[in-house]
Structures are given as structure tokens and as C-alpha cells.
Design a protein that fits this description.
- The protein is mainly β.
- It has one domain.
- The protein has two helices and eleven strands.
- The strands form four sheets. A four-stranded antiparallel sheet has the order 6-5-3-7, with no helix packed on it. The chain has a three-stranded antiparallel sheet with strand order 2-8-9, with helices on one face.
- A hairpin with a 2-residue loop joins strand 10 and strand 11.
- The radius of gyration is 16 Å and the shape is globular.
Length: 154
């Protein structure tokens, strides 16, 4: 799968996923469930932020992503996030959009059930942040510690 990433200042007109996220945020949504904003079947999503290596992303997901346009390079652009959706281990869709992903970056994937994020607003800007259901919970009792977390899929 060959994908060309052009530097985006706003959502691509061809990307209904990114348009749907933007619309929900503008309409005052307090949280985003990613599966509610997709029109295709998927079971995991990897979210890559600025400066993520395209070589590593290509290798991990069997893709051929190339940057093109005004900003060429080997990394996701500073102002962008890349979502790679998979179904049963095979990539089914990618989406590039504005940088609203800083609060949800992690090494592994989110399942379609885990991919529910709160929206943090600062003025007219917004960012997705991990909600309690998809973050690590640590409980301490004296010298003992219990750690509960959904394991990221690899």
C-alpha cells in the first residue's frame, strides 16, 4: 500500500474520519469514541505523532508511506498525527490530520473498544487525551503495588 503524505494545515477534504473528529470537537463533544467516526471495519489503531519515523511505521504495518509536497522527509510532520487502522493484523486505512493526538500517544495499539478519548480544550484549540478506561492504573498498599493496565496489542 503506497501512501503519500502531504503536509496538512487542516483536514484533508478526502478524509471523512478527520472531518468527523473536527466536527464533533467543534460541536462541544466531551469525548471521542474513534469507532463512531469511521465508516470501515477495524479492530486496532496505532497513533503516531510528530517526528515518528516513517521507515519504522512502514516496516511495522507493511506500508510504503512517502512524504511529499512542501515538506519532504522521513518523519511524520510536526503539525500532524497519523492513524493506522488494522483489522486482524492487516492495515485497512490510514488517516493524517492536524496534531490533536499528543495526549494519546503510546508504543502499542488501542483496540476499537479502548479507543475512547476525552477532549481537552484550551481556547479554540483541542487535543485528545487518554481517558481512565485506557490508561494505566496503579494502586499502592504499603510496600505492595498492584498495576492494572490493558496491554497494548502489537
Amino acid at each position: 500500500m503506497l501512501i503519500a503524505l502531504a503536509s496538512l494545515g487542516a483536514c484533508s477534504s478526502a478524509d471523512s474520519f478527520q472531518r468527523s473528529l473536527e466536527q464533533a470537537a467543534r460541536q462541544g463533544a466531551q469525548s471521542i469514541t474513534l469507532r463512531d467516526h469511521t465508516d470501515f471495519e477495524w479492530d486496532t489503531v496505532h497513533v503516531y505523532g510528530p517526528y515518528a519515523s516513517l521507515d519504522r511505521i512502514n516496516e511495522r504495518h507493511n506500508l510504503s508511506i512517502k512524504r511529499q509536497g512542501r515538506y519532504e522527509g522521513d518523519f511524520v510532520s510536526e503539525g500532524e498525527c497519523l492513524y493506522v487502522f488494522s483489522l486482524r493484523g492487516s492495515t485497512v486505512r490510514t488517516s493524517v490530520g492536524p496534531r490533536h493526538c499528543d495526549g494519546i500517544l503510546k508504543p502499542g495499539a488501542y483496540s476499537s473498544i479502548e479507543a475512547v478519548f476525552a477532549i481537552k480544550r484550551e481556547g479554540s484549540r483541542w487535543n485528545l487525551v487518554a481517558s481512565r478506561s485506557n490508561t494505566r492504573l496503579e494502586l499502592s498498599a504499603g510496600s505492595h503495588s498492584l498495576v492494572a493496565a490493558a496491554q497494548p496489542e502489537r
